[in-house]
């Protein structure tokens, strides 16, 4: 039978675990964004071998399951002398996996910049680096913020996978509560509600940002 | 106007050829521009005028031949008598003498007008922000847009944007400035204000100008020399009076007559 008392009594413990979930999402997203940007820049390099290598690597990561990558980082890396905590292995795997999606997002943003912007920068004799930092990126990023926001929410909902490498996040905590009390219904219902309460407003916020950006830039991607 | 046509040329195109894939768009161009000289370039569309200018701006690489600017090779380096491809830092060094105004303005939409004109001064010339701002305001006054400092490009008319683009190029003090059909993307009623600014620049500034244009009356008015191009070649060149009144080549005559027929029919 559903017990309100029990459902409420386990909330503090679940909310504690929620912090781990949010931390993993944020750190994973930062890693994904940095790596994604790096892949995008490498893919535009004039040096062909680098382009080919990065393309192949990105395709490889994208077409293998995140769960396998997590197992690999957590269980196989130690054989090569790299032992990572569940949290580190988790955010690394999550970040690496989603970097292959974010690189596409960055590419979309950069491709939308008209050729004339590069040419004007070059004609004014800006260095390559300054063209990127002063002219291209400040224009490429704002329109893709909604897409980045959507991936952030997707990654948030993917974090329960990290329980597979023993990270004690929300789902893992619910699992432990369930097996100790045999009250799985309350535990997982709570988890579902917490995810909903966080994800839904987040997607509303992304929607609002999207609208603002459309007004500001006339279009988004 | 400027009578600087003596001495060494500032720009020398030598045996320049350009092909895009299998199509040859320029063949064996030899062409000089002298310091301070105002050169107007006319010719049918597709004749290679833009490509010629873009090669000088280093936006397009010649397929053969050399370009010299101020006595220095632009796309090459002379290493023990052999021509080697120039590296990025050499290109940057020589490119600093060249400026360009584009048909579609290409202002930076995420910056105010003031920052559009300050940005390269700060990041390329290493001027302080204060200095860059003073220069920018001075140039904006010159093009009649001092009141638009804090506006964004999208808030300006096409003619105003093009005037800002000219201020942005001018503030870098190039030795030669390229104008590639800078009025042809504008509504007809905005052409005049832009031509007026170009005329002022031509009269006041020491720098050389290469003006690709379809505004024949304007070209005749401000140019020291007019160059007529067709099918990837320079057909003839000379003082405006000669080119417009006594063209030597049948092709030039045809082009000019078609042009005056067109402008009469409008
Ligand atoms: N990037 C390019 N790729 C292929 N063909 C080009 C390119 N740029 C110009 N062309 C071709 O070169 C010829 C000369 O073009 P252009 O220099 O723009 O002439 P103009 O400025 O006199 O109109 C045209 O036939 C044009 O189609
Ligand atoms: Mg052209």
From TrEMBL, chain A:
Record's bilayer topology term: Multi-pass membrane protein
Keyword Glycoprotein: no
Keywords: Amino-acid transport, Cell membrane, Membrane, Transmembrane, Transmembrane helix, Transport
CDD domains, sorted: TM_PBP2 (cd06261)
Gene Ontology MF, one: transmembrane transporter activity
GO biological process per UniProt: amino acid transport
Family stated for the protein in its record: Belongs to the binding-protein-dependent transport system permease family.
Name under which the protein is recorded: Amino acid ABC transporter, permease protein
UniProt source species: Sporolactobacillus inulinus
């Amino acid at each position: 039978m559903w017990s309100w008392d029990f459902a409420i009594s386990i909330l503090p413990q679940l909310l504690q675990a929620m912090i781990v979930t949010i931390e993993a999402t944020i750190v994973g997203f930062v890693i994904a964004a940095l790596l994604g940007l790096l892949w995008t820049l490498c893919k535009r390099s004039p040096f062909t071998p680098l382009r080919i290598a990065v393309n192949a690597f990105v395709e490889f990561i994208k077409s293998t399951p995140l769960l396998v990558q997590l197992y690999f980082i957590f269980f196989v890396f130690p054989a090569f002398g790299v032992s990572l905590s569940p949290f580190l292995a988790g955010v690394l795997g999550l970040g690496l996996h989603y970097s292959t999606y974010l690189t596409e997002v960055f590419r979309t943003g950069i491709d939308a910049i008209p050729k004339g912007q590069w040419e004007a920068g070059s004609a004014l004799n800006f260095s390559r680096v300054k063209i990127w930092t002063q002219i291209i990126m400040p224009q490429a990023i704002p329109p893709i913020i909604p897409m980045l926001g959507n991936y952030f929410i997707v990654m948030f909902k993917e974090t329960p996978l990290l329980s597979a490498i023993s990270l004690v996040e929300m789902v893992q905590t619910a699992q432990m509560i369930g097996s100790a009390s045999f009250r799985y219904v309350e535990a997982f219902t709570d988890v579902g509600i917490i995810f909903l309460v966080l994800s839904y407003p987040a997607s509303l916020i992304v929607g609002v940002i999207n609208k603002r950006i459309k007004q500001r830039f006339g279009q988004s991607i | 106007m400027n009578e600087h046509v003596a001495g060494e040329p500032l720009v020398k195109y030598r045996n320049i050829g350009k092909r895009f894939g299998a199509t040859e768009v320029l063949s064996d161009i030899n062409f000089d521009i002298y310091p301070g000289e105002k050169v107007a370039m006319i010719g049918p569309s597709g004749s290679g005028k833009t490509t010629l200018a873009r090669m000088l701006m280093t936006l397009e690489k010649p397929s053969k031949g050399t370009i010299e600017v101020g006595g220095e090779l632009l796309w090459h380096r002379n290493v023990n008598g052999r021509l080697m491809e120039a590296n990025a830092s050499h290109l940057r060094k020589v490119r600093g003498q060249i400026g360009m105004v584009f048909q579609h303005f290409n202002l930076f939409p995420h910056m105010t007008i003031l920052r559009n004109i300050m940005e390269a001064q700060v990041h390329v010339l290493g001027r302080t922000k204060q200095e860059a701002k003073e220069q920018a305001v001075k140039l904006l006054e010159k093009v009649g847009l001092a009141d638009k400092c804090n506006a964004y490009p999208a808030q300006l008319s096409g003619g105003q944007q093009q005037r800002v683009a000219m201020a942005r190029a001018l503030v870098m003090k190039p030795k030669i400035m390229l104008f590639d059909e800078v009025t042809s993307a504008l509504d007809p009623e905005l052409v005049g204000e832009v031509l007026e600014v170009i005329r002022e620049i031509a009269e006041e500034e020491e720098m050389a100008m290469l003006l690709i244009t379809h505004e024949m009356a304007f070209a005749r008015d401000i140019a020291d020399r007019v160059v007529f191009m067709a099918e990837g070649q320079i057909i003839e060149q000379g003082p405006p009076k000669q080119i417009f009144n006594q063209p030597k080549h049948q092709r030039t005559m045809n082009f000019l007559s078609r042009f005056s027929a067109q402008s009469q029919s409008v």
